[in-house]
Amino acid sequence: MKKWLALAATAVLGASLLISGCGSSTNNASSSGSKEVLKVAANPVPHAEILEQVKPILAKEGVDLQIVEFTDYIQPNMALSSHEVDANFFANVPYQNNYNKDHGTNFVSFAPVHIEPLAIYSQKIKDLKDLPNGAKVAIPSDPTNSARALLLLQSAGLVTLKDPTGLTNTPFDITSNPKNIQITELEAAQIPRSIQDLDAAVINANYALPAGLNPTKDGLFVEKADSPYANLLSVNPGDENKPAIQKLAKALQSPEVKKFIEEHYKGAIIPAF
């Protein structure tokens, strides 16, 4: 019996030492040069592509940037609100202001990176003057980009709006429509897939590029570069001053990123800094 107890005690002691050793090894690994993880939600194009350019910059600063991709405009904000990510990079100030108002969030948006010019595209005409009466024209359905698209249609001379410079116009605010175009609101990601069924479509650049459409080459009418719709970082209130977030903001506005945007997108995406 004594011999059995001695063996049992030895086994327990050995297991205790083994567990202690494993825990010590883990702690050493976590304390020896590990990087701070920073998760950022983004649309694949161009946001995730731009974030890939800052990964090595942040790695030198001790930050492990992890990109979480979403293909729509809703999930990046949901992920930020639920703290599944530390920041998101996909939207502009008017969009985030509208989202905050509608969803009771208080996202802080800062560090403008680039502008994605909105443009009018068509597979049926080569010039807007050839747009037929009663033409079917699609615009994004979310309030911010819908209003933005209406301003573009106004600039192109297709409609007149009640508030010529307003950022909250809806199709109901059209006061003049000489060609009686039929405006259809579709989810932004769906518009490139539906263009063959339309006479014209207003498409965001981040959805136009993956569909093989370049605003500077294929757009019949393109948003001007002084657009207020620069894409930028958004975080939960109070997080904008965190060191890792500040490092990300600085990296996104670095000369390396500006050069990448100019050389890679060749005018389809424009630096905003």
Structure description:
- InterPro entries: Lipoprotein_NlpA.
- This is Lipoprotein.
- This protein has 273 residues and is of the alpha/beta class.
- It folds into two domains: 124 residues, Periplasmic binding protein-like II (D-Maltodextrin-Binding Protein, domain 2), CATH 3.40.190.10; 95 residues, Periplasmic binding protein-like II (D-Maltodextrin-Binding Protein, domain 2), CATH 3.40.190.10.
- 41% of the residues lie in helices and 22% in strands.
- The chain has ten helices and 13 strands.
- Strands 2-1-3-12-4-13 form a six-stranded mixed β-sheet, sandwiched between helices. It has a five-stranded mixed β-sheet with strand order 9-6-10-5-11. A two-stranded antiparallel ribbon has the order 7-8.
- Helix 2 crosses helix 9.
- The longest helix is centred in the first third of the chain and has 30 residues.
- The termini are far apart.
- The N terminus is likely disordered.
- Element-by-element helix/strand order: HEHEHEHEEEHEEEHEHHEEHHE
Shape: globular
| Number of spatially distinct domains | 2
Structural class: alpha/beta
Strand order of the largest sheet: 2-1-3-12-4-13
The CATH class of the largest domain, by name, is Alpha Beta
Radius of gyration: 25 Å
Number of strands: 13
Could you list the spans in which at least 5 consecutive residues all have pLDDT below 50? 1-32
CATH topology of the largest domain: D-Maltodextrin-Binding Protein, domain 2
Helix content: 40-55%
CATH superfamily of the largest domain: Periplasmic binding protein-like II
**Strand content range:** 15-25%
**What's the overall average pLDDT, rounded?**
90
Amino- and carboxy-terminal Cα gap: 79 Å
Number of distinct helices = 10
Tell me the CATH architecture of the largest domain: 3-Layer(aba) Sandwich
Q: Could you give a short account of the major beta sheet?
A: 6 strands, mixed
